[in-house]
Amino acid sequence: MNRYVKCLASLVATCITGLAMAQVPPPMQPASTTPAAVPASASAAVDSTANASGQLHALTGADLSNFFDGLVPFALRRGDVAGGVISVVKDGKVLFAKGYGYNNLKQRTVPSPADTLFRIGSTSKLFTWTAAMQLVQAGKLNLDSDVNDYLDFKIPPFQGKPITLRNLLTQSPGFEDTARNLISTDGKPVDLERYLKSHLPARIYPPGDVVAYSNYGCGLAGYIVQRVSGQSFDDYVEQHLFKPLDMQHSTFRQPLPAQFEPLMAASYDKASDGKLQPFEIVDPAPAGAMSSTALDMAHFMIAQLQGGSYDGNSILSPATTALMHTPQRTDAPGMNGYALGFYQENSHGQTIIGHAGDTDYFHTDLHLMLDADVGVFMSFNSAGNEGGAEVIRAGIFNAFLDRYFPVATPQLPTAATAKADAARVAGWYLSSRRNDSALRMLYALTQTQVSALPDGTIQTAAFMNPSGAPMHWREVGPLKYQQVDGPYHLDFVAAANGDIRYWVTDSLPPVMVFQTVTGLHTLGSIELLGTLSLLLLLATLLSWLCGWLVRRHYGRGLALNPKQRRFRLWSRLGVLALFVTLLGWLILMVSMASDQSLLLQGGATPWLYLLYALGVLALLGVVLIVHHTVRSWMTPRRGRWVLVGETLLALAAIYLAWLILALRMISFNVHY
């Protein structure tokens, strides 16, 4: 759930450093199954057991025990993760379930798959979607009706199109991303209705047009379940899902009910620091508040794989279950897309659906292999070192697939158009999952660049192999790319006129696309022109100060009349306002990188208002700078280099004024 926000914040400081030094920073890497750029030692811990020989291992409890026992403890140590649990089901039975490491470092207790609770983050959404499908099956909800039909408040249409339940289940309602008040640690209960009515995000896409993952959208689905069923969301899930599935150690309730508190796994940032972290309150709860055990989650996987039934109790009919697993949308033909609630993870020749989940400290994956009738669940109670938990869970599942479902990756010939198309697709791209209202500047710094290489391959710094080197991609079909020496694919989608619209890849969950950015909005332009402009502002301020000190030392004044001095002073104050405003934004983004509460708990709000006010002063300052430059040109006997300097300063100020407006740095909007 919070993985995207966390990755975004962690890269802000790097992006800002790149801006200051006019270098290209590594853009956001919002992956759950992506081989991320992490310490090679952590990756090696999970890659070393992959079956390179292609020999098929028997998927038995004994072999799974040998496999995980040889893999997970070492991976936890190298990833600096305290502990975790894993369960595997096959053919309607629990094949394997075990805890590793520690659920409490101080007590040195090993997590139990039966009764140690883990926070499962956005994997909770699968229960919200299942609850909604129960009501669809009962005829109380329609997948293609306007959701306003089920609400007691209105969501305005966007470009004439209303949001449907199908849009919510396929993460395409068109909402911008928001993180404010998503996670808190104050221990206070949450109110779903109040949250939804006070946190309605802006719409940036027509419903159904663009996939853009939305926690708010899932919260909305949970509220619809609550209103249509006549029960609170917690009561409904407990009665209609947990009870028939015999999930006795599962709950959405926050704070934890008293009987579950002793069973909750402790959470940590890193195992090495041993600092116990507080219980996280997630809002909206249907999007990521659930706590559960590995065996309870095994029951849910069995039901999903067995036509909606577990141990004779049905939560969905076989037809509805099959519908829930049926692909609904993809953003490029042949690439992974969305079913109803589940996203596709097809790999190794297998039809796979699933969902990841993250809070700040817990990290979870659930995978259902529909053809093989196999389900895999895992959850870990620490973030780890440089994304350690991210690497571990991705590596474990990839190693699992390599061992039990090995398949040779077909190496298609390189297309004859490789060099021409590499030049065509090269450029800057921005994730469709973003916030435009208040954080457009921050997201602009997370653009990812696709670069064309001399041999006709392409690369983007967002995607790293397990050794930390950028992945290379070669064209194997029209605008279709395959990872060099790897299994992943990357496809570009063009408009009717041939212009590239966006690209998608199966090395990421299909929760977003990367859309083309052009002109002055590209990060390359912002880095170059922004850096030069900031340097000009800084040089002006330093020369202003140094000139004053020199004149004071020698007891001399400016050779300007009082009116000229006044306009020059106003111009320099305008430079100061502009510089302070931009510096303030950079400081805020660095602070967000080091303190996520600024995003998640709303701590950035007063600072945003202050920066918006400074932005207005900065724009007034630009007017003063330009006015002074014009007057300088109209003043006789001004030196040539003085005029050149004032002109360059005015041009820099005009560009920065455009940047402030283009990146909404005076929007006075705090919806983030």
Automatic annotation (TrEMBL):
Enumerate the Pfam families for this protein. Beta-lactamase
Its transmembrane ranges are 528-550, 570-594, 606-626, 647-666
- Any idea where the Beta-lactamase-related domain is? 78-391
Signal sequence region: 1-22
Q: Which UniProt keywords apply?
A: Membrane, Signal, Transmembrane, Transmembrane helix
State the InterPro entries in the record.
AmpC-like (IPR050491), Beta-lactam-related (IPR001466), Beta-lactam/transpept-like (IPR012338)
Question: PANTHER family attached here?
Answer: BETA-LACTAMASE-RELATED DOMAIN-CONTAINING PROTEIN (PTHR46825:SF9), D-ALANYL-D-ALANINE-CARBOXYPEPTIDASE/ENDOPEPTIDASE AMPH (PTHR46825)
Q: What is this protein called?
A: CubicO group peptidase, beta-lactamase class C family
